[in-house]
């Protein structure tokens, strides 16, 4: 038998990948809290420790309390004999937080929100303060220091100015530059690319330290002592620069939207302190499903994956199990209507009404006969997957909103679950009017492999940039377009726009393509793929049902024309009617 590794943490004792070889009661689960099992069986804390000690010979103890098996035995023996504990390890054991023995305990504790200063009501994927790490995603720990929210990534601490949980966008600024431009360590701003990406257009400032004196006056000059050199001159330049003749440099991203507020060195710290936006890349679609099933979101460090915490139910599920009435398909707390679609059909107690109201297909201009998972803006909410709402303008143009950006829909291909879209501001003018990178809601969409990127550079100096030079009517000068994904470099800002590979390959080399050709490339858009599993809806349609959405389970529902229940299909295999006539889901 391979000896399992045990970790005693502040939240209990975890044993990943232990099987029935250790205890039959654990059979069938992927991970367990052995302390919870022992605490349930033990009549006292002393007996719990004694039972724990019996396992120490077989288990390798790591982390947390740094107690050897001998120390554990000594501590347990002292407690069992009612003697005062005599070593620090034992005291530390006694001071441990209670392990989450009650299956409701982790459910309860992950119901806490992170609150600190103006950052309030924050939950998964973030954790910290009164939210233990099991309530959030690894690497997304928030700390609260004197009313200031702090997050650390890539060894740098950032002050969190704002968190929008709907879009998962954070506004952050470097802590080390909050009060003093002089630094002892020179570290560039680098995001953890597994967790974050830049959410809006930004520009870089390079702060140069320990530079040799120059004869000509240099703007944005400051004075700082630098270890390792007698030169104290420093400069701030727009763009990304290497140290060159200076001793060191750091690169700091700032919001391009606020670029005009940078006047000179006197307001540099204020300007940097306005921060820049990043988007969290953690997929929270499973968390939404969990919440809609009345669960709370957590993370299982034994299996390194999301887990849904449910009342009176062991962790490890993706949604909470329950028997749900027909009314369960309606989002909790919603009334009879909303501005973008009705919630309840007339006569909602009759399941046939759901079948009738979800029979409409969306048609607008060249986009025709589109059904689930999409709906029109005035169709009932339960007829589509949340977030997949199509709008038909008066000029018969179809649009969709993704992360607060409007896209024109050029095509929807249900067999491949892809759609072709283009930014609305690009359709109005060659240069993107909104200095914001193209960003998807990754819980709903992925980019298709058929795309490549073009980068628009704004406010560039007069340089020989190998790209198409543009004259834009949006007030920006020095605009260039290059193939691929580029940072702003020496320019003030950059905006990345996806295009189809078939149209974008080779574009931008040497400025050989004119703006008319660029218009054609941009207006063909790019492809994205929606991530919902279409099998449930296919099975429903094959059984003569119509697809809808169950907000209670956050899953596809099948509405049937002539049966007194709503189920996975209209074959009746997954639906049932109670003797009283109540209607139930059995997903």
UniProtKB/TrEMBL annotation:
Residues 110-173, 358-423 form the Wall-associated receptor kinase galacturonan-binding domain. Its EC number is 2.7.11.1. Its main location: membrane. The keyword Cell membrane does not apply. Keywords: Glycoprotein, Kinase, Signal, Transferase. Residues 242-312, 486-563 form the Wall-associated receptor kinase C-terminal domain. It is found in: Membrane. Transmembrane segments: none annotated. GO terms for molecular function: protein serine/threonine kinase activity. InterPro entries: Bifun_inhib/LTP/seed_sf, WAK_assoc_C, WAK_GUB. It catalyses: L-seryl-[protein] + ATP = O-phospho-L-seryl-[protein] + ADP + H(+); L-threonyl-[protein] + ATP = O-phospho-L-threonyl-[protein] + ADP + H(+). Pfam families: GUB_WAK_bind, WAK_assoc. The keyword Kinase applies. It is a single-pass membrane protein. One of its GO terms (cellular component) is membrane. This is non-specific serine/threonine protein kinase.
